[in-house]
């Protein structure tokens, strides 16, 4: 989502809210049974989305749908209560939405052919 070792890094509160929304969406999506992990990189430059037994085209389209969901999110943040979240006071939904809009712009034209490892 951002360049390694070059500020600005993702801010903790926005990153945290983004994590909640990302995890909520992909765990509720049609590919939920194929999600292994969805969570932040410790370096605050992006997120991991680990899947199994799914084609790249479906992952790309789900990622685009997820960014749209986050960018347009309204309402109470899922899992934000003190009981559900270990740092429930540290959230920034507007910043999470900003991150999603920015990343959606980056991935909007992604294709399977562009995936390189």
UniProtKB/TrEMBL annotation:
Top EC class of this enzyme: lyase
Signal peptide: none
Cofactor(s) in the UniProt record: Fe cation
A GO term for molecular function: iron ion binding
Assigned protein family: Belongs to the LuxS family.
Chemical reaction(s) catalysed: S-(5-deoxy-D-ribos-5-yl)-L-homocysteine = (S)-4,5-dihydroxypentane-2,3-dione + L-homocysteine
Enzyme Commission code(s) on record: 4.4.1.21
GO biological process: quorum sensing
InterPro entries on file: LuxS_sf, Metalloenz_LuxS/M16, S-ribosylhomocysteinase
Keyword Magnesium included in the entry's annotation: no
Keyword RNA-binding: no
Oligomeric form and interacting partners: Homodimer.
Keywords, comma-separated and alphabetical: Autoinducer synthesis, Iron, Lyase, Metal-binding, Quorum sensing
Name of the protein: S-ribosylhomocysteine lyase
Domain of life: Eukaryota
SUPFAM superfamilies in the record: LuxS/MPP-like metallohydrolase (SSF63411)
């Amino acid at each position: 989502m951002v360049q390694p070792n070059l500020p600005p890094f993702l801010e903790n509160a926005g990153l945290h809210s983004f994590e909640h929304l990302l995890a909520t969406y992909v765990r509720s999506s049609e590919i939920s049974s194929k999600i292994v992990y969805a969570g932040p990189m410790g370096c605050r430059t992006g997120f991991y989305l680990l899947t199994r037994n799914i084609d790249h085209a479906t992952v790309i389209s789900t990622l685009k749908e997820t960014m749209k969901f986050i960018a347009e999110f309204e309402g109470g943040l899922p899992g934000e209560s003190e009981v559900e979240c270990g740092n429930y006071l540290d959230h920034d939904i507007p910043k999470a939405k900003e991150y999603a809009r920015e990343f959606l712009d980056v991935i909007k034209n992604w294709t399977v052919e562009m995936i390189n490892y």
